[in-house]
Amino acid sequence: MVSHIHPVSFFQISWIGEMQQASDKSVIISEILDPRTRNLLTMSKISDYVLSNELVSMALAMVAEDRQINDVLEELFAEEGNEMQIRSSDLYLREEEELNFYEIILRGRHRKEIVIGYRLADAERAVINPPAKDAWRKWSYKDVFIVITVKD
Fold it and tell me: Mind listing the GO biological process terms from this record (predicted)?
């Protein structure tokens, strides 16, 4: 019996190497339907997931409290229209410029964007709807802003 062994091409080796590097840098976000699965995620230290049933329940509760919220949610979840994006801070300020969040919001408005939050360079999580919008801080080009903008 003769078996045929196909040699691995340079392209395949290169592709495998790229995939291994990408997996080290990639973030996988998972949709979870069963809330009991959340315990497994906590134990495995996976932080990026969407609990879709919970998300739908929260949206329904918001609409039940205020029907106008439905228009906002429809706009955000529509296939076309507005979307959330992460923007580089150099679009809104100069390095080490001292501004409060209200000033950032105004600069976003000039770009026809709604700035809803930020993530500082050394922070693990973003701050959405910051409570101290009037607090002055020195911003860095490594900081990013979360905005609602028209889809490109």
Answer: monoatomic ion transport
